[in-house]
């Protein structure tokens, strides 16, 4: 473990914890952004340039803004944690789900690590190779995702239009 | 000799670093480069502010600043002293931490973009494989800083300004990205250095800049529009429309923090102008083959300054758009045109060399432009405005 990794990992975990524990919702969203940035730095530290920058562009540039907009448009900036306090009453269920997801991910990572040689040379994947892979081998998943996103976009527009007609 | 002048700063860097032990050299070299970027663009910021105030003054038939120094050239210095000595007022109900972090984050992200811009031959701080993506990632992060500023001020005008800014920047980021994708398709790379190399050829003394192709010209216009919107410049300056919402998201900022916002705005302008220069105008390459002896960095900064002059000219000329006009323009005109331009670029790529592809691609772009303008202008009365009482 390099010192850079320790710092970045601590930053990510701190951001994630703050996103859960802070009282003001907008603060939570901003803390979540710190966690996103930490993840991007982790990608960069693993020489995954493309994934790291895409993480910043998509998550900090778009998802964080979306979260913040959603908070402001639905609850207003003054809304603090509700009457039920900071911790939801169904926290054991949430804990179970989180633990299950973590277990599955950890199991997958450990399984995958067994197949690798003990000291692997850092793979050098250029953006060009990623592009070729996306356009040749993975073109079908890419197109399916594109179709799904387009459908979601049109659906969102239809939902918004319906609401507008109703208010007239 | 021309070679020496071209690589002057690279030589100076090597010479300076040569005094140090070998283990320190990389770190010191990076620090020197970063410091010079901040100093050069800080200086350009002062110059641009002066140019803007003088230029706008001329366009509006007045003098502009003319009290400090000869012709007012020391005005930026006076402004700097003023903003540094002013009291820093933080609203009582504001969110102090976020209020403090917003200008800092804005300036940091805006300056980060310069790390990948090639300002001259061999003059780029980090030559990343995906530098275009890095630039856009940093550009997208400024939105969050603007939102933080608007929200933490606890002022309705600030929040309105921030919402306007974020909505506008997200809307125009899509055409901005899509118009640059054309260049990525043509060069087959996300590296800005390679993009400049691809344009640095000459036929009959004329350059192979991307702006001189049908798809490149269309993309250039779309990029220009989107970059104006992205930097919140007139005619897209709704986020800070001073006649409507005081100063938008930085209404509650004073003193040095206000100066930081000002700096961020102008440096963001330089960044986007530098990116546009690199993508479409050949970066640091000379406009004619016989001018190649002029140092490359002079060309880069000359093009960026031209771009800034264009921004100033636009600001002196055009009125502000309305919010619905802004959104309609982005989603119903600029976005379809950029998507069409992707198809045109693909056609250009696969038609092979020769005149036919020039004709086909130009025809598609022009016909689409005319048709969409006609459709957009239908049922809109455009003509001289008649006044009832003010005649």
Q: What can you tell me about this protein's structure?
A:
- The complex is a heterodimer of chains A (168) and B (391).
- Chain A has 168 residues and is mainly alpha-helical.
- Chain A has 6 helices and no strands.
- In chain A, 15% of the residues are buried.
- Chain B contains 14 helices and 2 strands.
- In chain B, strands 1-2 form a two-stranded antiparallel sheet.
What is this entry, summarized?
Chain A has 168 residues and is mostly helical. Chain A has helices at residues 3-21, 25-45, 49-74, 91-114, 127-135, 139-167. The termini of chain B are far apart.
Q: Topology of this protein?
A:
The complex is a heterodimer of chains A (168) and B (391).
Chain A: H1 3-21, H2 25-45, H3 49-74, H4 91-114, H5 127-135, H6 139-167
Helix pairs in contact in A: 1-2, 2-3
Chain B: H1 2-6, H2 8-17, H3 25-59, H4 75-85, H5 96-112, H6 131-152, H7 156-187, H8 192-199, E1 202-203, E2 206-207, H9 214-230, H10 242-245, H11 255-280, H12 296-317, H13 323-351, H14 355-377
Antiparallel strand pairs in B: 1-2
Helix pairs in contact in B: 3-11, 3-12, 4-11, 5-6, 5-11, 6-7, 7-9, 7-13, 9-11, 9-13, 11-12, 13-14
Rg of chain B, rounded, reads 22 Å
Number of strands of chain B: 2
Q: What percentage of amino acids of chain B are in beta strands?
A: under 5%
Fraction of residues in β-strands of chain A: under 5%
Report the count of strand segments of chain A: 0
The stretches of 5 or more residues of chain A where confidence is low (pLDDT under 50) are: none
Please state how the strands of the largest beta sheet of chain B are arranged side by side: 1-2
Shape of chain B from CA axes?
globular
Q: Residue share in helices of chain B?
A: 55-70%
Which sequence of SSEs, written as H and E, runs from N to C of chain A? HHHHHH
Low-confidence spans of chain B: pLDDT under 50, at least 5 residues?
Answer: none
């Amino acid at each position: 473990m390099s010192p850079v990794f320790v710092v970045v990992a601590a930053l990510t975990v701190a951001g994630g914890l703050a996103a859960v524990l802070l009282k003001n919702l907008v603060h939570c969203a901003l803390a979540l952004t710190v966690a996103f940035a930490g993840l991007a730095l982790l990608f960069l530290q693993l020489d995954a340039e493309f994934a790291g920058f895409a993480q910043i562009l998509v998550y900090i540039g778009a998802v964080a803004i979306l979260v913040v907009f959603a908070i402001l448009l639905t609850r207003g900036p003054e809304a603090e944690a509700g009457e039920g306090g900071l911790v939801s009453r169904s926290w054991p269920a949430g804990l179970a789900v989180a633990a299950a997801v973590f277990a599955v991910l950890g199991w997958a990572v450990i399984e995958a690590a067994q197949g690798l040689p003990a000291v692997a040379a850092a793979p050098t994947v250029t953006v060009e190779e990623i592009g070729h892979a996306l356009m040749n081998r993975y073109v079908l998943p890419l197109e399916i995702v594109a179709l799904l996103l387009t459908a979601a976009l049109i659906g969102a527009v239809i939902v918004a239009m319906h609401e507008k007609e109703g208010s007239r | 000799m021309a070679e020496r002048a071209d690589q002057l700063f690279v030589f100076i860097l090597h010479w300076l670093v040569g005094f140090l032990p070998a283990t320190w050299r990389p770190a010191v070299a990076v620090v020197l480069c970063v410091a010079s970027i901040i100093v050069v663009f800080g200086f350009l910021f002062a110059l641009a502010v002066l140019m803007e105030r003088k230029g706008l003054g001329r366009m509006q038939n007045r003098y502009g600043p003319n009290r400090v120094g000869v012709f007012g050239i020391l005005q930026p210095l006076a402004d700097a002293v003023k903003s540094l000595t002013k009291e820093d007022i933080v609203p009582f109900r504001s969110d102090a931490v976020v209020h403090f972090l917003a200008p800092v984050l804005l300036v940091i992200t805006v300056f980060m973009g310069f790390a990948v811009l090639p300002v001259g031959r061999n003059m780029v701080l980090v030559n990343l494989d995906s530098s275009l993506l890095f630039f856009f990632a940093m550009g997208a992060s400024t939105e969050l800083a603007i939102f933080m500023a608007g929200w933490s001020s606890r002022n309705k005008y600030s929040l309105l300004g921030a919402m306007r800014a974020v909505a506008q920047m997200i809307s125009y980021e899509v055409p901005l990205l899509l118009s640059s994708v054309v260049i990525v398709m043509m060069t087959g790379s996300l590296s800005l250095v390679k993009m400049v190399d691809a344009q640095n050829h000459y036929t009959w003394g004329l350059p192979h800049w991307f702006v001189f192709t049908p798809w490149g010209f269309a993309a250039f216009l779309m990029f220009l529009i989107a970059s104006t919107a992205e930097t919140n410049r007139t005619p897209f300056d709704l986020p800070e429309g001073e006649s409507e919402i005081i100063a938008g998201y930085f209404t509650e900022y004073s003193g040095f923090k206000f100066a930081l916002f000002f700096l961020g705005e102008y440096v963001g302008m330089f960044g986007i102008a530098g990116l546009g220069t690199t993508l479409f105008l050949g970066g640091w390459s000379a406009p004619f083959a016989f001018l190649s002896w002029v140092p490359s960095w002079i060309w880069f900064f000359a093009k960026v300054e031209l771009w800034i002059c264009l921004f100033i000219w636009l600001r002196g000329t055009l009125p502000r758009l309305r919010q619905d006009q802004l959104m309609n323009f982005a989603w119903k005109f600029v976005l379809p045109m950029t998507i069409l331009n992707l198809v045109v670029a693909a056609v250009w790529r696969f038609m092979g060399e020769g005149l036919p592809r020039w004709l086909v691609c130009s025809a598609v772009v022009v016909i689409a432009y005319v048709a969409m303008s006609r459709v957009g202008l239908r049922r809109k009365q455009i003509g001289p405005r008649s006044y009832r009482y003010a005649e």
